[in-house]
Amino acid sequence: ALAGSATLACANFPDKPVTIVVPFAAGGPTDKIARDLAEALRKPLGQTVIIDNTIGAGGTIGAAKVARAAPDGYTLLVSHIGMATAPALYRKLSYKVPEDFETLGLINEAPSVLIGKPGLAANNFAELRQWIAANGTKVNLANAGLGSASHLCGLMFQSALKTTMTPVPYKGTAPAMTDLIGGQVDLMCEQAVNAVPQIEGKKVKVYGITSLQRLPLPALKDAPTLSEAGLKDFNVQVWHGLYAPKGTPPAVLAKLNAALRTALKDPELIKREEALGLTVVTDERLDPASHRKFVETEKTRWAKVIKDAGEYAD
Ligand code: MLT
């Protein structure tokens, strides 16, 4: 009887609202992306999609909640690159990546930009590089906390320059940005989705794009990639993915994946994402197996950077 009712539950899925756990604060980049996705999923799922912001510890508290949730498809997770970096950054993680999750598909890629406080004398990346070389550990590099996108990008930036700066961690992107605008810190490497409004408002200086392609946004039309500006092959790109708890029935996963594919073809969603500097991923990357492989590749790539930097939580 149990097996029969489980089959029926799969056939009827979803017959009540689905919850997406967002492991970061409301109003931040991940939250914005998840809310847009929730809206676009409503039609293909035929149900309301509710956002639950369960925040803290670099997104690991929300991810742990989903790892422990009932594997019935009603509790999902939207998280970022932190899914792949948390195992190296948080030594006492209560879940395994990707083993404790079903990867449902990538959502987008979210390029970052290197930005500076308004008063910085350097006017381009070459000048900034000289200034960093002259000031070394006196350079304050803001980040939104251990495991945040800005923290990871900052680690990679220091590693590429073979320089140690002074990391200044904040409790989120908003306070970090506030202090950068106020000149209390010098630099930050932040997701375009969050930085573009400040660049447009001329509240911060922009030195370059951290991934390999320029961004077709008016505010960034003169911004080179760091790779073309001299830091050859520098490539840090945040990405977001959709996850379910391990053990979710295959029939439910298939429905969720199909809904994700439909949602990411929604012209309204694509327009909103592009305006934020995000790139919706191509169809083949929406495949659960390729999503899983990508998470594993990123996990390996970052584990080394994180180990070399020696910045982690016990
Ligand atoms: C957020 O959504 O708050 C950010 O993506 C967190 C971060 O900077 O990593």
Automatic annotation (TrEMBL):
Keywords: Signal. The keyword Signal applies. SUPFAM superfamilies: Periplasmic binding protein-like II (SSF53850). Pfam families: TctC (PF03401). InterPro entries: BUG, Bug_dom1. The keyword Signal applies. It comes from the Bacteria. PROSITE patterns: PROKAR_LIPOPROTEIN. Belongs to the UPF0065 (bug) family. PANTHER family: BLR1237 PROTEIN (PTHR42928:SF5), TRICARBOXYLATE-BINDING PROTEIN (PTHR42928). This is Tripartite tricarboxylate transporter substrate-binding protein.
